[in-house]
């Protein structure tokens, strides 16, 4: 009886694991099955490098959306990453204990705020500010970059902090014992040793920015055209799906799945490189 | 001329403090703004009445119920599979190419944007499986979305259980299953619960994957096969279509309060786990 | 003989940690297995209750007989074996539960549910491990709150609660203060009346104090074994002599 139970528990866990993995595989397979025929029909080149997205006229070029995604993400990284790294160093090295105990839950809360709330806050706070001070429609690359810059903070902060805290104490103590100041220790010993973890954090933060949908829909302007300035509205890959999926059918629907594939591949590449850097962590 | 170490130390630390405090300021700004504008609109009738005329009047009761039901379905489905997979990976297999592949897949799928899950849910659950826009379809989609997270957090919690607990249990004549149930699970349960609670937070906050799969109707849900609108989706529509800013703020404030409560709950679990470990 | 080990070889992957080891362990005696670090002592103990099975890549050859029956036999239940051959580890490893639940852990796995029965077992085991007087009023207390020495005695009591036939202690006193060590050694001398004790002492002195027989291991090989008095007064092998007189390494 006991032996039977023993085998049974193993088998049940195996079945659960197998189902989970099949479920996850299903998503991948399904997205590709739906999207790949479309790419075959329209042509990979026309799809990726076509500059006009007009489903009503049968034009399915997503170059503007790829460009939009890259520009907005780049802006978000430019704004968010330096701040996030400062915060990670602050949390791991500088903050007094009481402030750290306040700061960590605060970062967690920042991660928990629904993306629609971020988008909305951007709409009522950031967009008017841009309109008044820089001109233009307000919604667009700059607004989306600022909000996404804030939204990626928790990801980058927590993963970098963990990789800094994972360093052996001796590194820091050794450097301080050599007479280096605290900042010199941070800059010349701690940050270089935690480098691969921090790089992974940055990549995952970028992935977060690429994948965000709702906040971006609300403030990016959504015009499927090539931007000329950072105040121009653009459309990203995610918002392209979010905006049109509800009413799309036929070829149009398949085009959105194909957009999903592109998004999927970008995220997979980012994620694989993040994992590469996480594993490389060596000390 | 080289800067004196003391000077560069001062500059660097000032910069870091400024960055850190500005993040706190932004967080407070968002919270205070939403809460100040929203709290005055939260009343008993706001919580208990069904929205009328597209949400311009009335409360948000049906969206609260919708949010809870969709999240509940997601958690109920994802938790057994997630925890089971985690135990399988952590306890029943040796490190092989297969386990590494499974881990890599889970890790990667945790990073897939929620809109892609929505895309999948809409065409698979809603259309291919003929479930239709419904609480069930929304819950299933969210279950797929949070599954990788639950696998990962649970596995971390299980691996954090000291190996000595397992060896002790085995050395006292425990079978694998007894060891897992009586020795590993009780020690890992808080970490696992923490992951589940945070996943619940993601479900409550999720918009993109839900509006494509659970629908947008404002009627009170009557069964899990009925469509519903969640609070996050309701808020989005109220704000974006300019239906009612007052009710939008009220809904947003309620969402933030909910997320806050969920976070506090998760932290309570972690603290309890740490207290027990001492 | 309680345990007979014949031509035992243990490998971790490519590395051989025990080489062609044969040893007899008589019942109702304390056998000390001494040797410098990485001599294979721990591996030997972990082979006796097949805890090595848990180590990935571990391979065991040769035979180990408990009461004349091979412990590697298909018929043998590993869990049954581990109940008969109890083990106390180097680092006290109380499970995160109360003192009582720690002791009841093993009997409960076996299916004992009766509270009174468990209580009786707990009292008896704690008395044998010389811990009863210190803990009888606070059995519900988390085991973590005990001192290191008390935790280790709790671990001994936990093994005793299974009424084993053999008790193995793997350097179990290495982190303890002299008073706790003395208490454990006293109870070991009591225990050998009922059990067979295999001890990996944390130093040579302990072996000298408590054991009836001594076995000396070096680099995975058994160098010599015999009665305590014989090995300590006139070791046959030069290396044994060097080790016990502290001239080693």
Reconstruct the topology from this structure.
The complex is a heterotrimer of chains A (283), B (278) and C (249).
Chain A lengths: L1 H41 L1 H6 L3 E2 L4 E2 L2 H32 L2 H16 L2 H20 L6 H11 L1 H13 L3 H9 L4 H12 L1 H17 L2 H6 L17 H8 L5 H31 L3
Antiparallel strand pairs in A: 1-2
Helix pairs in contact in A: 1-13, 3-6, 3-7, 3-10, 4-7, 5-6, 7-10, 8-9, 10-13, 12-13
Chain B lengths: L4 H34 L5 H5 L12 H32 L4 H14 L3 H15 L6 H25 L3 H9 L4 H30 L2 H4 L19 H10 L4 H33 L1
Chain C lengths: L2 E10 L2 E11 L4 E5 L6 H8 L9 E9 L2 E2 L7 H7 E4 L10 H12 L4 H14 L3 H4 L12 H13 L5 E5 L7 H14 L4 E5 L3 H7 L2 E6 L2 E7 H6 L4 H7 L5
Parallel strand pairs in C: 3-8, 3-9, 6-7, 7-8
Antiparallel strand pairs in C: 1-2, 1-4, 4-5, 9-10
Quick structural summary:
The complex is a heterotrimer of chains A (about 280), B (about 280) and C (about 250). Chain A has about 280 residues and is mainly α.
Total strands of chain B: the figure is 0
Domains of chain C, number? 1
Q: How many helices of chain B does DSSP assign?
A: 11
Main beta sheet of chain C: 6 strands, mixed
> Helical content of chain B, roughly?
over 70%
How confident is the prediction overall: mean pLDDT of chain C? 90
> How far is the N terminus from the C terminus of chain C?
34 Å
Radius of gyration of chain B: 23 Å
Can you offer a commentary on this structure?
The complex is a heterotrimer of chains A (283), B (278) and C (249). With 283 residues, chain A is mainly alpha-helical. Chain A has helices spanning 2-42, 44-49, 63-94, 97-112, 115-134, 141-151, 153-165, 169-177, 182-193, 195-211, 214-219, 237-244, 250-280, and strands spanning 53-54, 59-60. Chain A has 2 domains: 2-48; 64-280, Orthogonal Bundle (MetI-like fold), CATH 1.10.3720.10. Chain A contains 13 helices and 2 strands, in the order H-H-E-E-H-H-H-H-H-H-H-H-H-H-H. Chain A has a two-stranded antiparallel sheet. In chain A, helix 3 packs across helix 10 (195-211) and helix 5 (115-134) packs across helix 6. The longest helix of chain A has 41 residues, at 2-42. Chain A is globular. In chain B, 76% of the residues lie in helices and 0% in strands. Chain B has helices at residues 5-38, 44-48, 61-92, 97-110, 114-128, 135-159, 163-171, 176-205, 208-211, 231-240, 245-277. The longest helix of chain B is centred in the N-terminal third of the chain and has 34 residues, at 5-38. Chain B is globular, with a radius of gyration of 23 Å. Chain B starts with a helix and ends with a helix. The model of chain B has no long low-confidence stretch (mean pLDDT 89). Chain C has a single domain (3-244), classed as Rossmann fold (3-Layer(aba) Sandwich), CATH 3.40.50. Chain C contains 10 helices and 10 strands. Chain C has helices spanning 41-48, 78-84, 99-110, 115-128, 132-135, 148-160, 178-191, 204-210, 228-233, 238-244; strands at 3-12, 15-25, 30-34, 58-66, 69-70, 85-88, 166-170, 196-200, 213-218, 221-227. In chain C, strands 6-7-8-3-9-10 form a 6-stranded mixed beta sheet, sandwiched between helices. In chain C, strands 2-1-4-5 form a 4-stranded antiparallel beta sheet, covered by helices on one side. In chain C, strand 9 (213-218) and strand 10 form a beta hairpin. In chain C, helix 3 crosses helix 4, helix 3 packs parallel to helix 6 (148-160) and helix 4 (115-128) packs across helix 6 (148-160). The mean pLDDT of chain C is 90. Classes of the chains: A mainly alpha (283), B mainly alpha (278), C alpha/beta (249). Chains in contact: A-B, B-C. Chains A and B meet through helix 1, helix 3, helix 4, helix 5 and helix 9 of A and helix 1, helix 3, helix 4, helix 5 and helix 6 of B.
């Amino acid at each position: 009886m006991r032996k039977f139970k023993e085998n049974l528990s193993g088998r049940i866990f195996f079945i659960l694991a197998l189902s989970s993995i099949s479920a996850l595989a299903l998503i991948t397979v399904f997205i590709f099955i739906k999207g790949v025929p479309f790419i075959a029909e329209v042509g990979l080149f026309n799809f990726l490098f076509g500059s006009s997205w007009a489903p009503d006229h049968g034009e399915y070029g997503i170059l503007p959306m790829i460009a939009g995604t890259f520009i907005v993400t780049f802006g978000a990284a430019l704004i968010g990453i330096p701040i996030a790294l400062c915060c990670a160093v602050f949390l791991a090295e500088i903050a007094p204990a009481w402030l750290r105990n306040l700061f960590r839950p605060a970062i967690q809360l920042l991660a928990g705020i629904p993306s629609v709330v971020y988008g909305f806050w951007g709409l009522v706070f950031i967009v008017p500010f841009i309109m008044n001070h820089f001109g233009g429609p307000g919604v667009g690359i700059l607004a989306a970059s600022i909000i996404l810059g804030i939204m990626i903070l928790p990801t980058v902060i927590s993963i970098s902090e963990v990789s800094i805290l994972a360093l052996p104490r001796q590194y820091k103590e050794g450097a301080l014992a050599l007479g280096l100041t605290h900042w010199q220790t941070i800059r010349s010993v701690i940050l270089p040793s935690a480098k691969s973890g921090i790089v992974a954090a940055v990549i995952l933060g970028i992935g977060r920015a690429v994948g965000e949908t709702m906040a971006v829909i609300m403030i990016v302007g959504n015009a499927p055209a090539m931007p000329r300035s950072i105040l121009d509205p653009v459309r990203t890959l995610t918002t392209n799906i979010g905006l049109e999926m509800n009413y799309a059918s036929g070829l149009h629907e398949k085009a959105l799945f194909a957009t999903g594939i592109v998004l999927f591949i970008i995220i997979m590449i980012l994620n694989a490189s993040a994992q590469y850097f996480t594993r490389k962590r060596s000390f | 001329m080289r800067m004196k170490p003391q000077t560069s130390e001062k500059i660097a630390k000032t910069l870091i403090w400024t960055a850190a405090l500005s993040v706190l300021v932004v967080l407070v700004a968002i919270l205070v703004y939403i809460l100040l504008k929203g709290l005055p609109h939260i009343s008993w009738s706001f919580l208990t009445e069904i929205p009328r005329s597209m949400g311009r009047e009335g409360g948000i009761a049906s969206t609260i119920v919708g949010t809870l039901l969709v999240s509940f379905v997601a958690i109920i489905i994802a938790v057994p599979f997630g925890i089971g997979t985690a135990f399988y990976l952590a306890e029943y297999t040796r490190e092989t190419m297969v386990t590494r592949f499974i881990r890599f897949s889970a890790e990667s799928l945790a990073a897939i944007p929620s809109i892609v899950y929505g895309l999948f849910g809409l065409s698979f659950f809603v259309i291919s499986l003929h479930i239709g826009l419904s609480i069930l379809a929304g819950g299933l989609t969210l279950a797929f979305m949070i599954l990788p997270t639950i696998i990962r957090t649970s596995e971390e919690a299980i691996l954090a259980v000291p190996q000595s607990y397992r060896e002790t249990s085995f050395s006292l004549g425990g079978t694998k299953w007894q060891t897992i149930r009586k020795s590993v699970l009780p020690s890992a349960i808080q970490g696992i619960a923490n992951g589940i609670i945070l996943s619940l937070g993601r479900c409550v906050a999720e918009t993109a994957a839900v509006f494509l799969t659970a629908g947008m109707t404002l009627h009170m849900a009557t069964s899990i096969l009925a469509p519903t609108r969640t609070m996050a989706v309701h808020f989005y529509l109220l704000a974006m279509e300019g239906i009612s800013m007052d009710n939008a703020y009220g809904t947003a404030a309620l969402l933030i309060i909910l997320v806050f409560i969920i976070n506090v709950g998760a932290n309570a679990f972690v603290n309890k786990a740490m207290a027990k470990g001492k | 003989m309680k345990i007979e080990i014949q031509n035992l070889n243990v490998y971790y992957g490519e590395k051989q940690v025990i080489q062609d080891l044969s040893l007899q362990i008589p019942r109702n005696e304390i056998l000390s297995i001494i040797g410098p670090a990485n001599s294979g002592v721990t591996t030997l103990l972990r082979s006796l209750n097949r805890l090595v099975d848990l180590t990935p890549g571990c391979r065991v050859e040769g035979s180990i007989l408990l009461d004349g029956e091979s412990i590697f036999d298909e018929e043998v239940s590993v869990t049954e074996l581990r109940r008969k051959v109890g083990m106390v580890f180097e680092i006290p490893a109380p499970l995160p539960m109360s003192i009582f639940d720690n002791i009841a852990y093993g009997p409960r796995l076996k299916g004992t549910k009766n509270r009174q029965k468990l209580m009786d077992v707990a009292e008896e085991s704690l008395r044998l491990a010389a811990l009863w007087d210190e803990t009888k009023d606070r059995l519900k207390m988390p085991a973590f709150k005990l001192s290191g020495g008390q935790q280790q005695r709790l671990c001994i009591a936990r093994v005793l609660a299974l009424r084993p036939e053999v008790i193995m202690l793997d350097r179990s006193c290495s982190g303890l203060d002299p008073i706790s060590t003395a208490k454990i050694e006293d109870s070991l001398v009591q225990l050998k009346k009922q059990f067979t004790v295999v001890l990996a002492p944390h130093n040579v002195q302990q072996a000298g104090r408590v054991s009836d027989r001594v076995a000396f291991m070096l680099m995975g090989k058994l160098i010599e074994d015999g009665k305590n008095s014989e090995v300590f007064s006139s070791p046959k092998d030069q290396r044994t002599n060097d080790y016990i007189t502290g001239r080693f390494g």
